[in-house]
Amino acid sequence: MSLQNQLVEILTQVLQLNPKNSAQMNDETPLLGAIPEFDSMAVVTIITALEDRFGFAVDDDEIDASIFETVGSLVTFVEGKLQAG
Q: Domain range spanning residue 53?
């Protein structure tokens, strides 16, 4: 399963999205500010899910709204964490 697909799966679970709608997500799909369920508590839950799934840690100073701008920006962030680890 591609990294993007894994992230969409996490987003679908955490945000309790309709799987049919999330299946349409791509790199350009806006997240923060575009999905009502995507609030500050969801960000924390998503970060925890990413840490659990991929085995890396996210420091507080790494968290920035731009990471959650689109699916593609989230993929880029996770790729960077995986390469650094």
A: 3-84
